[in-house]
Specification:
The complex is a heterodimer of chains A (310) and B (119).
Chain A lengths: L2 H4 L5 H15 L7 E2 L2 E2 L14 E12 L5 E15 L2 E13 L6 E4 L3 E11 L4 E10 L15 E11 L13 E12 L12 E10 L1 H8 L11 E12 L9 E11 L3 E10 L9 E9 H4 L1 H4 L7
Antiparallel strand pairs in A: 1-2, 3-4, 3-15, 4-5, 5-6, 5-7, 7-8, 8-9, 9-10, 10-11, 11-12, 12-13, 13-14, 14-15
Chain B lengths: L1 H16 L8 E5 L5 E2 L5 E6 L11 E3 L12 E2 L6 E5 L6 E10 L5 E10 L1
Parallel strand pairs in B: 2-8
Antiparallel strand pairs in B: 1-3, 3-6, 4-7, 5-6, 7-8
The chains are: A mainly beta (310), B mainly beta (119).
Chain lengths: 310, 119
């Protein structure tokens, strides 16, 4: 039934039913980042569980990696996600790296590209919960080898989850803006390496703990925050990797990334510190910043619905 | 030729971005979200960040026993299509829950709820 044919209907009930049908036909059912009342931002160093059309452009990071010799690494990257089917998105990403060693010329080149797919298989709006599965392909040899990009690929089947705490009891109002998203993946290299340089399977895990001032202001208590502060989501992300086999007796490496994301109607901006979780990871604090566009809102004619299917 | 290509590119981009979509978030409400108020309100007003689709956006107000107490006369303000209102009868002191689904004119749906307390 078309929208215009609805206007011929006289009764309010029929009008409402018709309008509901029109909306059902028009609404992109899988808008970015929502589970029930909860809006989840796109996190920066860990993946979020939502299949959506979106683009990070750019993501910039700077950190000094341990030596010898120590290397200062600047990286600028982008990734593009497209909703290809309902609840299913494909993402391609790559970056350009500049590595500086004291008293040497900078080395530059592209990182290994990544290609990934994600499928949302469960969503519970009442409990602000979503879970997804996906596969990440780090494409070996696609980046410059002399920058440390491996020549072998790594396949990482990954489980994603998101949970908002808006369903906590009313007696805990100021805990309800909290939410968590996270990933758990098994990184499987296409080459097991050599005895002197093994490539272990790795457990890739991470999570982001968020406190949404948007949720606080809209659902709990209006504390009078005006723009832009009302759109802030302070968060801390944990991004970790644990070797599992091939005689690699090494600690978990990773970073803890406290920061803040500001979310607007069409894009978000985020910045986080990069703090090594242990000495094996490094000693220096870095920074990462990102501008992220919600393509489904910004370019609805192209990305407002899945490329295939409804 | 270059100018024509440039014009075509700009025309394409304008066509693509002429109409952005957005979700309707709550800008502010009256009574305010989570507020304690002394005087009984005659209306609940919610200002959203986007213009709303009148047929599908609504406000319901429930008392602490879950009974709907509003007058079911939800309407969009004539001078501000982002303002949704519903009238209330004379309320008794107590805690009230406001529930809203909001559909912006581009058909994006958001939902939410908040409480206020009449003391």
């Amino acid at each position: 039934m078309s929208f215009h044919s609805c206007s011929l209907l006289k009764s309010a009930e029929l009008w409402s039913a018709c309008a509901a049908a029109w909306i059902a036909a028009c609404v992109p059912a899988f808008a970015h980042g929502f589970a029930g009342d909860r809006f989840f931002p796109a996190t920066i160093t860990t993946d979020d569980p939502f299949a959506a059309s979106e683009m990070s452009l750019p993501t910039f990071s700077e950190i000094r990696q341990p030596g010898p010799p120590p290397v200062k690494v600047f990286d600028i990257s982008t990734d593009l996600s497209v909703l290809v089917l309902p609840r299913t998105a494909l993402t391609i990403g790559d970056g350009y790296s500049i590595q500086k060693v004291a008293n040497q010329n900078a080395r530059t080149g592209f990182d290994n590209a990544t290609l990934s797919g994600l499928y949302e298989f469960f969503e519970n709006d009442k409990h602000e919960t979503i879970t997804s599965i996906g596969l990440i392909w780090d494409i070996g040899g696609s980046g410059r080898k002399s920058l440390g990009n491996p020549s072998f690929s790594t396949w990482t089947p990954t489980f994603y989850f998101g949970k908002g705490f808006g369903d906590l009891p009313d007696s805990l109002p100021f805990l309800r803006p909290f939410a968590i998203t996270g990933t758990l993946g098994l990184g499987i290299p296409s080459s097991s390496g050599t005895q002197s340089s093994p490539n272990p399977d790795t457990l890739q895990w991470g999570f982001a703990l968020e406190y949404s001032l948007i949720y606080l202001q809209q659902h709990i208590k209006d504390i009078g925050l005006k723009a832009p502060f009302g759109g802030l989501i302070p968060l801390v992300e944990f991004s970790m990797s644990t070797p599992l086999n091939r005689g690699v007796d090494e600690l978990t490496t990773g970073t803890i990334n406290p920061g803040v994301i500001w979310s607007g109607q069409y894009y978000q901006v985020g910045v986080e510190a990069i703090i090594p979780v242990n000495a094996h990871t490094g000693h220096n604090v870095g920074v990462i910043a990102q501008v992220h566009f919600y393509l489904d809102d910004l370019l609805p004619k192209i990305f407002g619905k899945p490329l295939f299917g409804r | 030729m270059k100018a024509a290509t440039k014009s075509l590119f700009i025309a394409c981009m304008l066509f693509l971005i002429e109409e952005c979509w957005a979700h309707a978030f709550v800008d502010h409400a009256e009574p305010a979200v989570g507020s304690q108020i002394q005087a009984a309100p005659t209306q609940v007003k919610i200002w959203f960040t986007e213009k709303l689709e009148p047929a599908l956006s609504k406000i319901q107000v429930f008392d602490s026993s879950g009974l709907e107490v509003d007058k079911r006369d939800v309407k969009i303000d004539q001078s501000n299509a982002a303002l949704l209102t519903v009238s209330l009868p004379k309320l008794k002191p107590g805690k009230y829950k406001v529930v809203w689904p909001a559909v912006s004119v581009d058909t994006h749906v958001t939902t939410g709820n908040f409480t206020f307390e009449l003391v």
